[in-house]
Design brief:
GO terms for molecular function: DNA-binding transcription factor activity; sequence-specific DNA binding. Belongs to the LysR transcriptional regulatory family. By secondary structure, the protein is of the alpha/beta class. Helices cover about 40% and strands about 20% of the residues. The strands form 2 sheets. Strands 3, 4, 5, 6, 7, 8, 9, 10 and 11 form a 9-stranded mixed sheet that branches. The chain has a two-stranded antiparallel sheet with strand order 1-2.
Length: about 300
């Protein structure tokens, strides 16, 4: 008995999510049904595709080989569909984009909204997680990161640099007086990331600030900004965030200025998918322009 594409689609979901329940949610199937479909595929191929472990369903050697072939078939089907859609000249379908919290909250909504205005048939999903999005498991079609990955079958393209400075609310500075040097920071309460939840060392600003303890911490940039806005203390803030919260101002910009970068990461197999190529090009252009616009608004 030859396997059918529906069973292979179930196999892909289990392979990427490593669980029957996760695959079931994605496919809108009962986990038991997912399990039966996997078993049917294994019987059709006369091969064991998964090994059950405490971490979930792990691919066997046979499963790994099948995954490579099925993903190639998936890409061929997608490419054919995209070439057909491309005749209309507009992007369509759904694109899921992973991004760190600051970018997801303060840059991507307006950038993606403009792209969708020009492509009414396009839907964009923004996935913001306190960790790096796993493209190998197809959690998203592409991801924005601050540290380019050095492993996996991925393509990486630098988008733009961005700046961060110390910041506090005008209310806080009025209550505590002006700050004239970095050494004074030890006398103030600080805002930042939860130390054991910093998933990328480029997001750890404590050393640059010269502080050891963060009194008001969150794994979310949006929450940190609200701490600052309500006068909780002093912290590092992205320059591109400041125009959205007018009562926060930069402190000691000549004494402490950090620069980080955004990179766009995609699965290597997606290089031939024209829809994703066009979307990523529009996304990169949009992010570059938006970061520049927002940072210039802070300078003036």
């Amino acid at each position: 008995m030859d396997p059918n594409w529906d069973d292979l689609r179930v196999f892909l979901a289990v392979a990427r999510l490593e669980s029957l329940s996760g695959a079931g949610k994605q496919l809108k199937m009962d986990p038991a049904t997912v399990g039966r479909r996997v078993q049917r595929l294994e019987e059709a191929l006369d091969a064991s595709l998964f090994a059950k472990s405490p971490q979930g369903y792990a691919l066997t050697a046979e499963g790994e080989r099948l995954l490579t072939r099925v993903e190639q078939a998936e890409q061929a089907v997608t490419l054919g569909a995209e070439e057909t859609r491309g005749q209309a000249g507009q992007l369509s379908g759904t694109v899921r984009l992973g991004a760190p919290d600051g970018c997801a909250n303060y840059i991507l909504p307006q950038v993606c909204a403009r792209i969708c205005e020009e492509n009414p048939g396009l839907e964009v999903q923004i996935l913001s997680l306190p960790r790096v999005v796993n493209l190998s498991r197809r959690e998203a079609d592409m991801a924005i990161v601050v540290s380019p990955p050095d492993a996996g079958r991925l393509t990486v393209q630098k988008i733009t640099d961005y700046k961060l400075h110390l910041a506090a609310s005008r209310k806080y500075l009025k209550m505590h007086g002006p700050i004239e040097s970095l050494s004074e920071l030890r006398n103030h309460k600080t805002v930042g990331y939860i130390p054991d939840m910093v998933f990328d060392q480029k997001l750890d600003y404590s050393a640059a600030m010269g502080v050891e303890d963060v009194q008001f911490a969150s794994n979310s940039v949006a929450v940190q900004v609200n701490f600052l806005r309500h006068g909780a203390g002093i912290g590092m803030a992205h320059d591109f965030v400041l125009p959205a919260v007018r009562n926060i101002q930069r402190i000691l910009p000549d004494q402490l200025s950090l620069q980080r970068s955004f990179y766009l990461v995609r699965h290597a197999d997606d290089r031939r998918v024209e829809r994703l190529n066009r979307f990523s090009a529009a996304l990169i252009d949009g992010i570059r322009a938006e970061v520049l616009r927002l940072e210039e608004a802070v300078e003036t």
